[in-house]
Design brief:
heterodimer; A: 390 residues; alpha+beta; OB fold (Dihydrolipoamide Acetyltransferase, E2P); six-stranded mixed β-sheet; five-stranded antiparallel β-sheet; 8 helices; 22% helix; disordered N terminus; B: 272 residues
């Protein structure tokens, strides 16, 4: 196995196929985890609704959704704390439903970290290894290795309440990685950290995931976190998968208004589609306004109701109507949000719709071109927007 | 420091006087030279010396201590197990009923508990002695242990046990290696509570004791019926001393542990 999977093969000079890590696109690849029509009910409540999903080895897979969407239930089923009501979960081709949590090659990092308060950091990390009756010498080596990996060597003798929140998070990670599990589950691992520390830790997590080659499944409600760390993201809602794709596809090609709205900021314009050339549609969206133009590979029937989703950063704001713009609407500035690096203009159209347009503040101390109540033009290209049914 | 107002000072004095004057009188008269309990005749420790010679009292004290140790240990095991199942067992059939029933003996009149146990022991033909007192004390003190331990278990983070399972523990190992060490303070204070309850119980012990075994409270009670002797005062003073030392030690230990924890957490916050 190559330690550097992203480099071209030097002997043949060819760019080997593994340059891009995308086993989900390879029909030959065997998934490490398979959810097969899994349903989980708690009494009358359906937490997971007939869900099927493949996760591959070495993936950093994110389950993303609002609270109560079933993402934590999926993780607890993988860990063995819950069993599916219907369907099966396979790990490496084996049905793991009857296997209790202590017999699974799966470890979990808990949201509360769940460090044992009566044991030192060293003993916390050694805890799982001791259960396997690992020889003393190997055990010590492994614990030291984990301490080095998570930069905790100097805290080894301390108790969990004697270290900071960020250090506790690393202890929890070291403890769950110590047994070299096939699969590591991370339940909101960075939720308790402040923003700056969270960003640093995200990269640390990715680094450790790459170094150890372990498959990570992370549960989070923070879309930025999921986008940063994950190789693929599953957006969930009410026990169902809404979309499973790479972060960039989720962002640029959402398959539903729900996903478009959940990930990042978006403008949604409702209208009716009519074909206008190959893969191109005209959208009638408001009385007395020129129709908008958008491309879509998905077929739309004549007059079918549709939603046009446009990211604010793909909308250009200008004082005059751009001559070559395919889509241009006029409105007036309703509000301005200055974020330092970006400014978001909330532009109100004549029919009351608010469209957000974002510009990067690339120059320091420049005068703002537009201010409140200014009449402005918003424009975007035919490919900037995504045309969605619902 | 604020000075107490006139009214508060009087209230406090009255309250404490009410609580402690009887005990103080008892302690003072245990050092009385005279055999007459109510007449002061000078300071002496001779009654303590006589007490050490009194075989009957020493026997009773030894029985009491053995009964207290065995019954509180048994009550701690049973009470902890019951608390664990009631807090952690999930929703099983009849759980509400059981959790109500485990607290019922707390409010049950002791006379009734004692009588029902007496009838049971006679019914099954068990000779009354140390064993029957131990069983009786276990019965009524295990619910106290269960109350103390379950209040700790309610605030216990369940993910700690899940983490232990996740790292390869069987459920029994998880309990022994993680749950028990963490709830140990509650288990110990449950044991101490059961121990003191057993130590000073008179009613249930008098129903369930036999001629072969008498506990100290029974001994004192029957001796007092023949007249209060300074020897009894001396014995009671010793018991007060033991309890006081125990309580003060326990509270000091807890306070120190809490302060150390607080300092550690502050130190951790600084290195953040």
């Amino acid at each position: 196995m190559s330690a550097l999977p992203f480099l071209p093969d030097c002997r043949t000079g060819a760019i080997v196929n593994s340059e891009v890590f995308a086993p989900w696109e390879d029909p030959q690849a065997k998934p490490l985890i398979q959810f097969q029509n899994v349903t989980k009910r708690f009494g009358d409540f359906t937490a997971i609704d007939n869900l099927s999903l493949d996760i591959f080895e070495k993936e950093f897979f994110a389950l993303l959704g609002p609270s109560g969407c079933g993402k934590t239930t999926m993780m607890r089923m993988l860990a063995g704390f819950e069993t599916p009501t219907e369907g099966h979960i396979m790990l490496g081709g084996q049905d793991i439903d009857p296997i209790p949590p202590n017999k699974r090659a799966v470890n979990m990092m808990f949201q509360s970290y769940a460090l044992f308060p009566h044991l030192s950091i060293w003993e916390n990390i050694a805890f799982g290894l001791r259960r396997d009756n690992m020889p003393k010498h190997d055990l010590e080596d492994r614990v030291e290795e984990m301490l080095r990996l998570t930069r905790l060597t100097q805290f080894a003798r301390r108790k969990p309440h004697q270290i900071s929140g960020g250090q506790r998070q690393r202890v929890a990670l070291a403890r769950s990685l110590a047994k070299a599990p096939k699969l590591l589950l991370l339940d909101e691992p960075l939720g308790a950290l402040d923003k700056k520390l969270r960003q640093d830790t995200q990269f640390e997590l990715m680094d450790i995931q790459e170094k150890t080659g372990t498959t990570f499944v992370i549960v989070t409600h923070d879309q930025e976190e999921a986008m940063t760390v994950a190789s693929r993201v599953a957006v969930m809602d009410q026990g169902k998968l809404m979309q499973v794709a790479t972060p960039d596809r989720i962002y640029e090609n959402p398959n539903s208004v729900y996903v478009a709205d959940f990930i990042g900021d978006v403008n949604i314009i409702e209208g009716r589609a009519s074909a206008n050339g190959e893969n191109t549609y005209q959208i009638d969206w408001a009385e007395g306004q020129a129709p908008l133009t958008a491309t879509s590979a998905n077929g739309f029937a004549q007059g079918q109701a549709c939603h046009l989703a446009i990211r604010p950063e793909k909308v250009t704001i200008s004082a005059d109507r751009p001559a070559d713009a395919i889509n241009a609407v006029q409105g007036k500035v309703h509000d301005i949000a200055y974020l330092g690096n970006l400014s978001t203009y909330y532009v109100e159209l004549p029919n009351g719709t608010i469209i957000k347009a974002q510009t990067a503040n690339t120059r320091r101390i420049s005068r703002r071109s537009f201010t409140w109540e200014d009449p402005v033009w918003l424009s975007w290209t035919a490919t900037a927007a995504v045309l969605l049914v619902d | 420091m604020n000075r107490l107002s006139w009214f508060n000072a009087v209230s406090l004095t009255l309250g404490f006087a009410f609580l402690y004057i009887p005990m103080i009188i008892l302690i003072i008269f245990s050092f009385n030279e005279s055999k007459l309990v109510t007449v002061w005749a000078g300071f002496s420790t001779k009654w303590y010396g006589e007490l050490a010679q009194n075989e009957a009292f020493l026997d009773a004290a030894w029985v009491t201590i053995r009964v207290a140790v065995f019954s509180s240990t048994l009550a701690t095991v049973l009470g902890t197990a019951a608390a664990y199942v009631l807090v952690r067992g999930g929703r099983f059939f009849g759980r509400t009923l059981f959790s109500g029933m485990i607290y019922a003996p707390l409010v049950m009149p002791e006379v009734i508990t004692g009588l029902s146990l007496l009838l049971l022991f006679i019914g099954i033909g068990l000779d009354r002695g140390i064993l029957t007192i131990v069983l009786a004390h276990t019965t009524f003190s295990m619910c106290f242990v269960s109350v103390v331990v379950s209040s700790r278990l309610v605030t216990f983070d369940q993910s700690l046990e899940e983490a232990a399972l996740d790292l390869g523990c069987s459920p029994a190992q998880a309990f022994r290696l993680v749950t028990l060490p963490i709830i140990a303070p509650a288990v110990i204070s449950g044991w101490l509570l059961a121990f003191t309850l057993s130590l000073d119980d008179l009613v249930i012990a008098s129903f369930t004791s036999g001629p072969s075994a008498t506990t100290l409270p029974i001994k004192i009670f029957s001796a007092v019926r023949l007249g209060v002797s300074p020897e009894i005062n001396a014995l009671s003073t010793l018991m007060i001393a033991v309890v006081t030392v125990g309580v003060i030690t326990a509270s000091l230990v807890t306070k120190r542990a809490m302060m150390r924890q607080k300092q550690d957490e502050m130190a951790a916050a600084r290195t953040e």
